[in-house]
């Protein structure tokens, strides 16, 4: 009785079951493609099964040793907590500075602010933001270590540069998403461009600016 009922359901919803069958075939084909890719990759670079097993065993050994705490009470906890505090200070300082610097620069990248002949400035600022956030923070860190030496300052500058590119782009997009009606009303009242950007755009994008700065 149950099989007949199931057959009836399949007949009545044939399109749904056909779609499910196609979905499973796509999943199976994707899994087969991934497996084939790894087989070709291992064969091309000469990775044998013994090397693969040895690598996995070493990784598992390293992972297990992470949870083997010997002489726990003899650890230099003061040094550890000091380094954690320095790390948090580096991240906070770099992020806070980036958010404050990115805010005025984001207006230069907003296409609804930089209109007419100033449109080129918005394009250039967007490309600059893309470059800043496109380079990994570790690369920026190595550059600034070379420039200012090893220490917290290099870390702050690396965080600042990459967050500047990220915040600048996001802030500019929040400016562009602002409703145009308040700016039009301010224009009708005789407000200048600075007043329109301040009260017509920034008042709408400020919650986004605050949320992004806090969440980062």
Could you provide a short overview of the structure?
With 216 residues, the protein is mainly alpha-helical.
- Share of helix among residues? over 70%
Structural class: mainly alpha
Please name the fourth-level CATH homologous superfamily of the largest domain.
MetI-like
Name of the CATH first level of the largest domain? Mainly Alpha
Major sheet description? none
Distance between the first and last residues' Cα: 59 Å
What are the segments in which pLDDT stays under 50 over at least 5 consecutive residues? none
Helix tally equals 9
What name is given to the CATH topology of the largest domain?
A: MetI-like fold
Estimate the global geometry from the Cα principal axes. Answer: extended
- Percent of residues in beta strands? under 5%
CATH architecture assignment name of the largest domain: Orthogonal Bundle
**What is the N-to-C order of secondary-structure elements (H for helix, E for strand)?**
HHHHHHHHH
Strand element count: 0
Tell me the count of domains.
2
Main location: other
Membrane topology: Multi-pass membrane protein
Transmembrane segments: 23-45, 84-110, 131-161
Protein name: Phosphonate ABC transporter permease protein phnE1
Question: What layout of secondary structure does this protein have?
Answer:
Blueprint: H1 2-12, H2 14-44, H3 49-65, H4 77-109, H5 119-134, H6 137-148, H7 152-176, H8 181-188, H9 193-215
Protein name: Phosphonate ABC transporter permease protein phnE1
Keywords: Membrane, Transmembrane, Transmembrane helix, Transport
InterPro entries: MetI-like_sf
């Amino acid at each position: 009785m149950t099989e007949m009922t199931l057959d009836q359901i399949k007949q009545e919803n044939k399109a749904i079951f056909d779609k499910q069958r196609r979905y499973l075939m796509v999943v199976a084909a994707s899994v087969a493609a991934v497996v084939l890719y790894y087989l070709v990759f291992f064969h091309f670079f000469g990775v044998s099964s013994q090397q693969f097993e040895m690598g996995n065993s070493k990784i598992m050994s390293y992972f297990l040793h992470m949870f083997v705490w010997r002489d726990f009470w003899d650890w230099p906890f003061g040094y550890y907590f000091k380094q954690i505090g320095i790390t948090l200070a580096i991240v906070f300082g770099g992020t806070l500075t980036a958010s404050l610097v990115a805010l005025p620069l984001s207006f230069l990248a907003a296409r609804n602010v930089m209109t007419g002949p100033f449109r080129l400035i918005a394009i250039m600022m967007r490309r600059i933001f893309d470059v800043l956030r496109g380079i990994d923070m570790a690369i920026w860190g190595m550059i600034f270590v070379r420039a200012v030496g090893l220490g917290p300052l290099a870390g702050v500058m690396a965080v600042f540069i990459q967050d500047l590119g990220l915040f600048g782009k996001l802030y500019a997009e929040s400016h562009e998403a602002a409703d145009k009606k308040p700016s039009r009303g301010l224009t009708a009242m005789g407000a200048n461009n600075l007043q329109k950007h301040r009260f017509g755009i920034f008042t709408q994008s400020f919650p986004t600016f605050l949320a992004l700065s806090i969440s980062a």
